[in-house]
Design brief:
By secondary structure, the chain is mainly α. The chain has one domain. The protein is built from five helices and no strands. Helix 1 packs antiparallel against helix 2 and helix 2 packs antiparallel against helix 4. The protein starts with 9 loop residues before the first helix and ends with a helix.
């Protein structure tokens, strides 16, 4: 588990899997933070593109910002909606431990996260 074989980007996802699962092993709270981080990263990657692909000069931009195809827009928006729901769930569990209103954004801006959380 955690081995991604895609020729072009498999190394990236294998590396990220290892780092994130390693971070999540420390405690239940750490695992919740990793879940929230994954959702923040997913929302960015769905909207724009994974940063590693941008940095590598990926030949065709990917993500919501780069399409006007209605089917793709609907699919991307559905994925982002799901990630927002998941982030709210993770933050709810995190804040049950650390206190309501104390979650700090890990990848998105705090304003973006606050908007998702309805703050």
């Amino acid at each position: 588990m955690g081995i991604f074989t895609g020729e072009e980007w498999g190394w990236y996802f294998t590396e990220k899997f290892g780092v994130l699962t390693g971070m999540a092993r420390d405690s239940e709270l750490a695992a919740l933070y990793v879940g929230a981080l994954i959702e923040e990263l997913d929302m960015h990657d769905i909207a724009v593109c994974p940063q590693v692909m941008i940095d590598a000069g990926y030949p065709e931009p990917c993500g919501l910002e780069y399409t006007d195809a209605s089917a793709l827009i609907n699919a991307y928006n559905s994925l982002i909606d799901g990630s927002e729901d998941h982030l709210r769930a993770y933050v709810g569990q995190i804040e049950a431990i650390i206190g309501v209103g104390k979650y700090k954004a890990q990848y998105l801006t705090q304003d973006e996260v606050d908007a998702i959380l309805g703050r």
